[in-house]
Each structure stands twice: as C-alpha cells, then as structure tokens.
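Write out the 3D structure for:
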Amino acid sequence: MSLSGEGKVILDQLTEILDLERPSIVKICLAKGIAESNGIPDDLQKLSSKNKWTIPDGIIKEKEFSMFKHLIINEINTSITNVELHKYMLIFIEKGLRLLKNIHKEKASLEDIRISIL
C-alpha cells in the first residue's frame, strides 16, 4: 500500500505529536477512518499519484488484519478481494490521518489529543 505524499507528512506530524511509532498511528488512523465513515469516503478515492510513501508489509497482520478486513466489509457492505481490501484500507487510513489532523488543529491548548481522539 502506498500513502499519499500529504498523508506521509500528516503521519510524520502525528508521530511527533502523539509520541508513538508509525505502525501504531497507522492502525489508529485506519480504525478512526472506518469508525467515522458512512460507507466509502468519496473525497479520498482519487488521491494524488505522485509523492507516494510505501507502507511496509506486516504493519497490520494476522488477527488485526482479519478484524480490519471484516470491519471494512461491514462498512462498505459488500464482499471484496484482498487486492480491493488493500485499496480500501489505504482510503480509510488516509481518512483517519486527516481526521486526526483536524482533531489536533481544533483542540484547545490544554486538551490532551489522546483523549480528543477517543
């Protein structure tokens, strides 16, 4: 899976803000993207094809992979292949990155972003 250039910048910012590793943030963003969506996010289906960053294989594996797969199938309300699954995972990760960026931007200065994410 390849994250957009803008998504990579947001991921790096969130890594510093949350003081977490990239894999954890990717999983949080995927979960948040699925939770906050109603179906497939239309605004992210045509991401820029330049400045891509490849998400390493194995970040989401085994039981987590199965869990996210079924959450995505439930969200989009249709069965999908593994190739399509990676496309949807990427869409929901990008959606989650932007949601977390907005949460950080809109929070009060004394608020903890981790509580705001919940």
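The longest strand covers residues 2-3.
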